[in-house]
Design brief:
GO molecular function: FMN binding; oxidoreductase activity
Strand content: 15-25%
Number of helices: 13
Largest sheet: 8 strands, parallel, barrel
Protein name: 2,4-dienoyl-CoA reductase
CATH superfamily: Aldolase class I
Keywords: Flavoprotein, Oxidoreductase
Order of helices and strands: EEEHEEHEEEEHEHHHEHEHEHEHHHH
Strand order of the largest sheet: 3-4-6-10-11-12-13-14
CATH architecture: Alpha-Beta Barrel
Distance between the termini: 68 Å
Oligomer: single chain
Length: 399
Protein backbone atom coordinates (compact mmCIF):
# COMPACT_ATOMS: atom_id res chain seq x y z
CA UNK A 1 0.00 0.00 0.00
CA UNK A 2 1.36 3.42 -0.95
CA UNK A 3 2.03 5.79 1.98
CA UNK A 4 -0.60 8.44 2.60
CA UNK A 5 0.15 11.81 1.02
CA UNK A 6 1.41 14.46 3.43
CA UNK A 7 -1.16 17.29 3.41
CA UNK A 8 1.62 19.82 4.05
CA UNK A 9 3.07 19.07 0.64
CA UNK A 10 -0.05 19.00 -1.47
CA UNK A 11 -0.47 21.95 -3.86
CA UNK A 12 -3.13 24.61 -3.38
CA UNK A 13 -4.78 26.49 -6.24
CA UNK A 14 -6.02 29.90 -5.13
CA UNK A 15 -9.30 31.34 -6.48
CA UNK A 16 -7.39 33.58 -8.92
CA UNK A 17 -5.62 30.53 -10.39
CA UNK A 18 -2.20 31.05 -8.74
CA UNK A 19 -0.66 27.71 -7.73
CA UNK A 20 1.08 27.31 -4.36
CA UNK A 21 3.21 24.18 -4.52
CA UNK A 22 2.70 23.25 -0.86
CA UNK A 23 1.02 24.57 2.28
CA UNK A 24 3.99 26.33 3.92
CA UNK A 25 4.39 30.11 3.73
CA UNK A 26 7.12 32.34 5.06
CA UNK A 27 4.93 34.83 6.89
CA UNK A 28 5.70 38.53 6.67
CA UNK A 29 8.43 39.86 8.90
CA UNK A 30 10.08 43.25 8.84
CA UNK A 31 13.39 41.90 7.55
CA UNK A 32 14.94 45.40 7.66
CA UNK A 33 17.16 44.67 4.69
CA UNK A 34 16.31 47.65 2.52
CA UNK A 35 19.21 49.98 1.76
CA UNK A 36 17.95 52.78 3.99
CA UNK A 37 16.44 54.63 1.03
CA UNK A 38 13.57 52.23 0.35
CA UNK A 39 15.38 50.07 -2.23
CA UNK A 40 15.93 46.28 -2.12
CA UNK A 41 19.47 45.05 -1.57
CA UNK A 42 21.44 42.06 -2.78
CA UNK A 43 21.35 40.55 0.70
CA UNK A 44 17.57 40.87 0.74
CA UNK A 45 17.31 39.15 -2.62
CA UNK A 46 19.55 36.37 -1.37
CA UNK A 47 17.42 35.97 1.78
CA UNK A 48 14.27 35.33 -0.24
CA UNK A 49 16.22 33.12 -2.62
CA UNK A 50 17.36 31.07 0.38
CA UNK A 51 13.75 30.57 1.49
CA UNK A 52 12.71 29.62 -2.05
CA UNK A 53 15.56 27.12 -2.26
CA UNK A 54 14.52 25.84 1.17
CA UNK A 55 11.13 24.75 -0.14
CA UNK A 56 8.53 27.34 0.87
CA UNK A 57 5.55 27.74 -1.43
CA UNK A 58 5.22 31.44 -0.64
CA UNK A 59 7.28 34.23 0.92
CA UNK A 60 5.67 37.51 1.97
CA UNK A 61 7.90 40.60 2.22
CA UNK A 62 6.99 42.53 5.36
CA UNK A 63 6.15 46.22 5.27
CA UNK A 64 6.46 47.46 1.69
CA UNK A 65 5.27 51.06 1.84
CA UNK A 66 3.77 53.26 -0.82
CA UNK A 67 4.27 56.38 1.33
CA UNK A 68 7.83 56.87 2.62
CA UNK A 69 6.50 58.94 5.52
CA UNK A 70 4.42 55.96 6.70
CA UNK A 71 7.34 53.57 7.20
CA UNK A 72 7.67 51.47 10.32
CA UNK A 73 11.48 51.31 10.12
CA UNK A 74 14.18 52.80 7.86
CA UNK A 75 14.94 49.29 6.57
CA UNK A 76 11.48 49.05 4.93
CA UNK A 77 11.01 49.08 1.17
CA UNK A 78 9.18 51.88 -0.63
CA UNK A 79 7.36 51.04 -3.85
CA UNK A 80 5.76 53.99 -5.62
CA UNK A 81 6.05 55.89 -8.88
CA UNK A 82 9.55 57.12 -8.00
CA UNK A 83 10.97 53.68 -7.16
CA UNK A 84 13.58 51.72 -9.10
CA UNK A 85 11.25 49.08 -10.51
CA UNK A 86 14.09 46.94 -11.85
CA UNK A 87 15.48 46.54 -8.33
CA UNK A 88 12.08 45.18 -7.25
CA UNK A 89 11.93 42.97 -10.34
CA UNK A 90 15.29 41.46 -9.36
CA UNK A 91 13.93 40.71 -5.89
CA UNK A 92 10.83 39.11 -7.42
CA UNK A 93 12.96 36.89 -9.66
CA UNK A 94 15.19 35.66 -6.85
CA UNK A 95 12.27 35.01 -4.51
CA UNK A 96 10.46 33.04 -7.24
CA UNK A 97 13.20 30.42 -7.53
CA UNK A 98 12.31 26.73 -7.19
CA UNK A 99 8.63 27.25 -7.98
CA UNK A 100 8.01 29.63 -5.05
CA UNK A 101 5.74 32.63 -4.97
CA UNK A 102 6.87 35.95 -3.47
CA UNK A 103 4.43 38.72 -2.57
CA UNK A 104 5.03 42.18 -1.05
CA UNK A 105 2.93 43.09 1.97
CA UNK A 106 1.27 46.44 1.34
CA UNK A 107 1.86 48.38 4.52
CA UNK A 108 1.24 51.73 6.18
CA UNK A 109 2.42 52.15 9.77
CA UNK A 110 -0.09 54.88 10.60
CA UNK A 111 0.31 55.92 14.22
CA UNK A 112 3.40 53.71 14.46
CA UNK A 113 5.37 55.47 11.73
CA UNK A 114 8.99 55.76 12.87
CA UNK A 115 9.19 59.34 14.25
CA UNK A 116 12.63 60.29 12.83
CA UNK A 117 11.47 59.54 9.28
CA UNK A 118 7.67 59.51 9.34
CA UNK A 119 4.45 61.26 10.24
CA UNK A 120 2.54 59.42 12.95
CA UNK A 121 -1.10 59.66 11.86
CA UNK A 122 -3.93 57.27 12.59
CA UNK A 123 -7.71 57.13 12.68
CA UNK A 124 -7.74 59.19 15.89
CA UNK A 125 -5.31 61.40 17.75
CA UNK A 126 -3.21 59.57 20.35
CA UNK A 127 -1.18 60.91 23.26
CA UNK A 128 0.12 57.84 25.09
CA UNK A 129 3.46 57.01 26.76
CA UNK A 130 5.80 56.38 23.86
CA UNK A 131 3.17 56.99 21.20
CA UNK A 132 1.74 60.26 19.89
CA UNK A 133 -0.18 60.61 16.64
CA UNK A 134 -2.45 63.01 14.79
CA UNK A 135 -5.82 62.06 13.35
CA UNK A 136 -6.01 61.58 9.59
CA UNK A 137 -8.23 64.05 7.77
CA UNK A 138 -11.13 62.87 5.64
CA UNK A 139 -9.20 63.92 2.56
CA UNK A 140 -6.16 61.86 3.59
CA UNK A 141 -8.34 58.80 4.22
CA UNK A 142 -9.98 59.15 0.81
CA UNK A 143 -6.54 59.05 -0.85
CA UNK A 144 -5.41 55.83 0.85
CA UNK A 145 -7.14 53.21 -1.35
CA UNK A 146 -5.54 54.74 -4.43
CA UNK A 147 -2.12 54.71 -2.77
CA UNK A 148 -2.39 51.03 -1.88
CA UNK A 149 -3.66 50.27 -5.39
CA UNK A 150 -0.71 52.05 -7.02
CA UNK A 151 1.79 50.01 -5.01
CA UNK A 152 -0.07 46.82 -5.93
CA UNK A 153 -0.06 47.80 -9.62
CA UNK A 154 3.70 48.38 -9.52
CA UNK A 155 4.22 45.07 -7.72
CA UNK A 156 2.42 43.32 -10.57
CA UNK A 157 4.59 45.13 -13.13
CA UNK A 158 7.72 44.06 -11.24
CA UNK A 159 6.73 40.40 -11.56
CA UNK A 160 5.41 39.54 -8.11
CA UNK A 161 2.70 36.88 -8.16
CA UNK A 162 0.51 38.58 -5.57
CA UNK A 163 0.22 41.13 -2.77
CA UNK A 164 -0.91 41.03 0.84
CA UNK A 165 -2.88 43.93 2.37
CA UNK A 166 -1.66 44.40 5.95
CA UNK A 167 -4.55 44.84 8.40
CA UNK A 168 -2.91 43.33 11.49
CA UNK A 169 -0.45 43.99 14.32
CA UNK A 170 -1.58 47.52 15.06
CA UNK A 171 -0.57 49.14 11.77
CA UNK A 172 -2.88 51.59 10.02
CA UNK A 173 -5.69 49.37 8.72
CA UNK A 174 -5.57 47.43 11.98
CA UNK A 175 -5.86 50.73 13.86
CA UNK A 176 -9.03 51.55 11.92
CA UNK A 177 -10.50 48.14 12.86
CA UNK A 178 -9.72 48.55 16.55
CA UNK A 179 -12.26 50.33 18.79
CA UNK A 180 -9.40 51.13 21.14
CA UNK A 181 -7.59 53.29 18.57
CA UNK A 182 -10.44 54.32 16.29
CA UNK A 183 -12.62 56.88 18.05
CA UNK A 184 -13.86 58.58 14.89
CA UNK A 185 -17.46 59.79 14.69
CA UNK A 186 -17.73 59.79 10.90
CA UNK A 187 -18.35 56.95 8.43
CA UNK A 188 -15.03 55.30 9.38
CA UNK A 189 -15.68 55.02 13.13
CA UNK A 190 -18.16 53.57 15.56
CA UNK A 191 -19.62 50.11 14.80
CA UNK A 192 -17.43 47.48 13.15
CA UNK A 193 -19.25 47.97 9.85
CA UNK A 194 -17.83 51.50 9.75
CA UNK A 195 -14.42 50.59 11.15
CA UNK A 196 -13.87 48.02 8.38
CA UNK A 197 -14.90 50.49 5.66
CA UNK A 198 -11.35 51.61 4.83
CA UNK A 199 -10.05 48.04 4.64
CA UNK A 200 -12.82 47.09 2.21
CA UNK A 201 -12.18 50.18 0.09
CA UNK A 202 -8.48 49.32 -0.06
CA UNK A 203 -9.15 45.70 -1.01
CA UNK A 204 -11.56 46.69 -3.79
CA UNK A 205 -9.11 49.28 -5.13
CA UNK A 206 -6.22 46.79 -5.10
CA UNK A 207 -8.22 44.13 -6.90
CA UNK A 208 -9.36 46.63 -9.54
CA UNK A 209 -5.76 47.75 -10.04
CA UNK A 210 -4.21 44.31 -10.54
CA UNK A 211 -7.01 42.49 -12.35
CA UNK A 212 -8.38 39.00 -11.68
CA UNK A 213 -5.20 36.92 -12.13
CA UNK A 214 -2.90 38.32 -9.44
CA UNK A 215 -3.27 36.92 -5.93
CA UNK A 216 -4.63 39.36 -3.35
CA UNK A 217 -4.42 38.39 0.32
CA UNK A 218 -5.34 40.13 3.57
CA UNK A 219 -3.53 39.76 6.89
CA UNK A 220 -6.08 40.24 9.66
CA UNK A 221 -5.87 40.44 13.43
CA UNK A 222 -7.99 37.85 15.22
CA UNK A 223 -7.52 39.92 18.36
CA UNK A 224 -5.46 42.97 19.32
CA UNK A 225 -4.56 41.30 22.65
CA UNK A 226 -5.36 44.61 24.32
CA UNK A 227 -8.26 45.43 26.64
CA UNK A 228 -10.79 47.39 24.61
CA UNK A 229 -9.25 46.39 21.28
CA UNK A 230 -10.51 44.28 18.40
CA UNK A 231 -11.97 40.97 19.57
CA UNK A 232 -12.60 37.67 17.73
CA UNK A 233 -16.34 38.14 17.23
CA UNK A 234 -15.73 41.41 15.39
CA UNK A 235 -12.96 39.79 13.36
CA UNK A 236 -15.51 37.23 12.20
CA UNK A 237 -17.70 40.07 10.94
CA UNK A 238 -14.76 41.41 8.94
CA UNK A 239 -14.18 37.95 7.47
CA UNK A 240 -17.81 37.71 6.40
CA UNK A 241 -17.45 41.02 4.59
CA UNK A 242 -14.17 39.99 2.95
CA UNK A 243 -15.83 36.84 1.60
CA UNK A 244 -17.46 38.80 -1.21
CA UNK A 245 -14.45 40.92 -2.25
CA UNK A 246 -12.70 38.45 -4.55
CA UNK A 247 -9.60 37.99 -2.42
CA UNK A 248 -7.57 34.78 -2.48
CA UNK A 249 -6.23 34.22 1.04
CA UNK A 250 -6.91 35.45 4.57
CA UNK A 251 -3.88 35.29 6.88
CA UNK A 252 -5.01 35.13 10.52
CA UNK A 253 -2.68 36.62 13.10
CA UNK A 254 -2.94 38.82 16.18
CA UNK A 255 -1.38 41.16 18.69
CA UNK A 256 0.03 44.64 18.22
CA UNK A 257 3.41 46.31 18.33
CA UNK A 258 2.24 49.31 20.32
CA UNK A 259 4.68 50.25 23.11
CA UNK A 260 4.19 47.98 26.09
CA UNK A 261 1.78 45.60 24.33
CA UNK A 262 2.46 41.87 24.18
CA UNK A 263 2.96 40.72 20.61
CA UNK A 264 1.73 37.25 19.70
CA UNK A 265 5.23 36.16 18.72
CA UNK A 266 6.66 37.08 22.13
CA UNK A 267 3.82 35.67 24.20
CA UNK A 268 5.13 32.13 24.57
CA UNK A 269 2.75 29.20 24.51
CA UNK A 270 3.20 25.67 23.32
CA UNK A 271 1.17 25.61 20.13
CA UNK A 272 -0.32 27.56 17.24
CA UNK A 273 -2.25 30.60 18.37
CA UNK A 274 -5.08 30.98 15.88
CA UNK A 275 -6.08 27.54 14.60
CA UNK A 276 -9.14 27.33 16.87
CA UNK A 277 -10.34 30.68 15.56
CA UNK A 278 -9.71 29.48 12.00
CA UNK A 279 -12.21 26.68 12.58
CA UNK A 280 -14.81 29.31 13.41
CA UNK A 281 -13.81 31.45 10.43
CA UNK A 282 -14.07 28.45 8.11
CA UNK A 283 -17.84 28.50 8.63
CA UNK A 284 -18.03 32.15 7.57
CA UNK A 285 -16.01 32.22 4.34
CA UNK A 286 -15.05 30.23 1.28
CA UNK A 287 -11.74 32.12 0.98
CA UNK A 288 -8.67 29.95 1.72
CA UNK A 289 -7.32 30.50 5.23
CA UNK A 290 -3.80 30.73 6.59
CA UNK A 291 -2.83 30.93 10.26
CA UNK A 292 0.42 32.57 11.35
CA UNK A 293 1.91 32.29 14.81
CA UNK A 294 3.08 29.61 17.19
CA UNK A 295 3.88 26.80 14.77
CA UNK A 296 7.04 25.18 16.11
CA UNK A 297 6.88 21.57 14.88
CA UNK A 298 5.95 19.71 11.73
CA UNK A 299 3.23 17.83 13.61
CA UNK A 300 1.53 21.11 14.56
CA UNK A 301 1.66 22.38 10.99
CA UNK A 302 0.52 19.09 9.48
CA UNK A 303 -2.36 18.68 11.93
CA UNK A 304 -3.65 22.21 11.25
CA UNK A 305 -3.87 21.51 7.51
CA UNK A 306 -5.01 17.88 7.82
CA UNK A 307 -7.86 18.89 10.14
CA UNK A 308 -9.22 21.29 7.53
CA UNK A 309 -8.90 24.27 9.89
CA UNK A 310 -6.49 26.07 7.55
CA UNK A 311 -5.24 25.73 4.01
CA UNK A 312 -1.80 27.25 4.70
CA UNK A 313 0.48 27.62 7.70
CA UNK A 314 2.56 30.76 8.12
CA UNK A 315 6.00 30.23 9.62
CA UNK A 316 8.23 33.13 10.64
CA UNK A 317 10.80 32.50 13.35
CA UNK A 318 11.02 28.79 12.49
CA UNK A 319 12.27 29.79 9.03
CA UNK A 320 14.81 32.15 10.56
CA UNK A 321 16.21 29.34 12.67
CA UNK A 322 16.21 26.99 9.65
CA UNK A 323 15.64 28.60 6.20
CA UNK A 324 15.49 25.16 4.54
CA UNK A 325 12.92 23.77 7.01
CA UNK A 326 10.24 22.80 4.43
CA UNK A 327 12.76 20.62 2.57
CA UNK A 328 13.84 19.05 5.85
CA UNK A 329 10.26 18.37 6.88
CA UNK A 330 9.46 16.81 3.53
CA UNK A 331 12.47 14.52 4.01
CA UNK A 332 11.35 13.63 7.53
CA UNK A 333 14.14 15.54 9.31
CA UNK A 334 14.26 18.27 11.99
CA UNK A 335 10.62 17.72 12.91
CA UNK A 336 11.03 19.94 16.00
CA UNK A 337 13.61 22.66 15.21
CA UNK A 338 15.56 24.13 18.12
CA UNK A 339 14.79 27.75 19.00
CA UNK A 340 17.14 30.01 20.98
CA UNK A 341 16.22 30.76 24.59
CA UNK A 342 16.65 34.20 26.11
CA UNK A 343 16.47 35.08 29.81
CA UNK A 344 14.52 38.27 30.64
CA UNK A 345 14.96 39.92 27.24
CA UNK A 346 14.12 43.64 27.04
CA UNK A 347 11.09 44.77 25.04
CA UNK A 348 11.91 44.31 21.36
CA UNK A 349 15.11 42.44 22.11
CA UNK A 350 14.04 39.09 20.71
CA UNK A 351 12.77 40.76 17.53
CA UNK A 352 16.17 42.44 17.18
CA UNK A 353 17.96 39.09 17.47
CA UNK A 354 15.80 37.47 14.80
CA UNK A 355 16.14 40.50 12.52
CA UNK A 356 19.94 40.39 12.68
CA UNK A 357 19.81 36.64 12.03
CA UNK A 358 17.96 37.46 8.79
CA UNK A 359 20.89 39.65 7.78
CA UNK A 360 23.27 36.76 8.41
CA UNK A 361 21.16 34.42 6.26
CA UNK A 362 21.00 36.96 3.44
CA UNK A 363 24.78 37.23 3.57
CA UNK A 364 25.24 33.41 3.77
CA UNK A 365 27.09 33.63 7.06
CA UNK A 366 24.68 32.26 9.67
CA UNK A 367 25.99 29.75 12.20
CA UNK A 368 24.37 27.05 14.34
CA UNK A 369 25.35 28.88 17.54
CA UNK A 370 23.13 31.83 18.53
CA UNK A 371 25.02 35.04 19.14
CA UNK A 372 24.66 37.18 22.23
CA UNK A 373 21.31 38.97 22.55
CA UNK A 374 22.75 42.32 23.62
CA UNK A 375 25.17 42.32 20.70
CA UNK A 376 22.26 41.77 18.31
CA UNK A 377 20.28 44.59 19.94
CA UNK A 378 23.23 46.99 19.69
CA UNK A 379 23.81 46.17 16.01
CA UNK A 380 20.09 46.43 15.22
CA UNK A 381 19.68 49.81 16.90
CA UNK A 382 22.93 51.16 15.48
CA UNK A 383 22.00 50.18 11.94
CA UNK A 384 18.58 51.82 12.19
CA UNK A 385 20.09 55.01 13.59
CA UNK A 386 22.56 55.20 10.71
CA UNK A 387 19.84 54.61 8.16
CA UNK A 388 17.73 57.53 9.36
CA UNK A 389 20.11 60.00 7.73
CA UNK A 390 20.06 58.01 4.48
CA UNK A 391 16.26 57.93 4.50
CA UNK A 392 15.97 61.66 5.11
CA UNK A 393 18.49 62.38 2.36
CA UNK A 394 16.35 60.37 -0.04
CA UNK A 395 12.85 61.44 1.00
CA UNK A 396 13.30 64.61 3.05
CA UNK A 397 12.33 65.30 6.63
CA UNK A 398 8.78 64.42 7.70
CA UNK A 399 6.47 67.41 7.67
Amino acid sequence: MAPAADPLFEPLVLPCGVLLKNRIAKAAMSDSLGDGAGRPTSAQGRLYERWAEGGVALSIIGEVQGDPFAAEKPGNLVLNGESDLEAFAALARRGSDNGAQIWPQLGHAGAMAHPPIGRARGPSALDLPGLRAEALSGEAIAALPGQFAETARLASRAGFGGVQVHAAHGFLLSQFLSPLFNRREDAYGGPIGNRMRLLLEVVHAVRAAVGPDLAVAVKLNVTDRLEGGLMPDESLEVIRALDTTGIDLIDLSGGTYFPGAVSASDSGGSGPYFVDFARRARRETSVPLMATGGFKTRAQARDAVASGAVDMVGLARALVVAPELPNRWQAGRDLEPAFPRFTDPPEGGVTAWYTMRLTEIGEDRETDTPGALQDAIDRYEGRDAARVATWRDRFGAPG
